[in-house]
Design goal:
Strand content: 15-25%
Structural class: alpha+beta
Radius of gyration: 22 Å
Distance between the termini: 79 Å
Number of strands: 3
Helix content: 40-55%
Strand order of the largest sheet: 1-2-3
Order of helices and strands: EEEHH
Largest sheet: 3 strands, antiparallel
């Protein structure tokens, strides 16, 4: 029994593409085809540009919301 994958005659061999996007509180991690860091971001932007922009927008909005909350707390403390 062979462990090699079989393909139909005349069918071209396809490569497997793997892209993973992990979103944390203030962190977005990307893995693509075993690569991490800038190389993975580059592959993500090429393959799935909307996901890349969505991840950047998520972190930006989260940082703005936390900053606004901190300003509100400081303003309340100063006015008391």
């Amino acid at each position: 029994m062979s462990s090699k994958p079989t393909q139909a005659p005349g069918e071209e061999a396809r490569t497997v593409e793997f892209t993973s996007l992990s979103v944390g509180a203030f962190v977005v991690r990307v893995r693509a085809d075993g690569r991490t860091g800038r190389e993975a971001w580059k592959l993500l932007r090429e393959r799935h540009p909307w996901f890349a922009w969505g991840a950047i927008a998520y972190v930006t909005l989260l940082l703005v919301a936390v900053g606004a909350l901190m300003l509100a707390v400081v303003a309340e403390a100063v006015s008391s």
